[in-house]
Amino acid sequence: MKLGVNIDHIATLRNARGGAEPNLARAAEIALKEDVFALTMHLREDRRHIKDSDLYEVKKLGAKINLEMAATTEILQIALDLSPYSVCLVPEKRQEITTEGGLDVSSQKEYLKEFIKPLKERGILVSLFIDADLNQVQSASDIKADYIELHTGSFSNAFDKKEYNSELNKLITASIEAQKLGLKVNAGHGLNYQNVYLMKQIPNLSELNIGHSIISRSVFTGLKQAIREMNELIN
Ligand code: PXP
């Protein structure tokens, strides 16, 4: 299984002060020296974390970008210009803290089929972020997406309550069905150092996209060093 690292959370921290620190390109450079398959970046309509210029800076570093985006014409133009390795279409609500549910592909099949055409023509792989729902899996196949990304948010929430079996089984069933239909399968959202081992029970997973838990952990793996360096400077 390959790891995609979602670096939006670095941008959220940077934007809290409105300056340049922590530097997103520097974070991308560090990630790219590790065994990381792709960097996931969500260009939101309101630009609340990733900015347009971030995408181009990270692309310049030679990163494979997995661009998360809503299916809007404004972001489509940017995606076509940027030409990332892949795009992952997600639903987007202004007020949400993070992506809440999967994309409803079934109710907008015709729109999405047309929407992804120029991306595919440009050679950009298209993924759809969906709940583990067989109807959505079938719809993703009908519109000829390359990948689905299974939303693991419900599984992660259930894991915290120690009641995750039915959510895990839904992910397993959806992944098996997707593979039968010729779709590649990624997964992500809410995965962390405690629950990620269960992803090995899901057959055919290509990539896991993980952000919040990695960035959160890096605070603690780096805090001691950061305090020491500051103390050296002031003493
Ligand atoms: N995949 C998708 C489509 C997402 O929207 C997110 C959250 O931005 C992630 C993966 C990563 O989720 P987390 O930050 O909880 O690891």
Would you write up a description of this structure?
The structure is a single chain. With 235 residues, this protein is α/β, with parallel strands linked by helices. The protein contains nine helices and eight strands. Strands 1-2-3-4-5-6-7-8 form an eight-stranded parallel β-barrel, surrounded by eight helices. Helix 6 packs parallel to helix 8 and helix 7 (153-160) runs antiparallel to helix 8 (165-180). The longest helix is centred in the last third of the chain and has 23 residues, at 212-234. Pyridoxine-5'-phosphate (PXP) is lined by residues 6, 8, 42, 68, 88, 90, 98-99, 129, 149, 188-191, 209-213.
Secondary-structure blueprint:
Blueprint: E1 2-6, H1 8-17, H2 24-32, E2 38-42, H3 52-60, E3 65-69, H4 73-82, E4 86-89, H5 109-121, E5 125-130, H6 134-142, E6 147-151, H7 153-160, H8 165-180, E7 184-188, E8 205-210, H9 212-234
Parallel strand pairs: 1-2, 1-8, 2-3, 3-4, 4-5, 5-6, 6-7, 7-8
Helix pairs in contact: 6-8, 7-8
The protein binds pyridoxine-5'-phosphate.
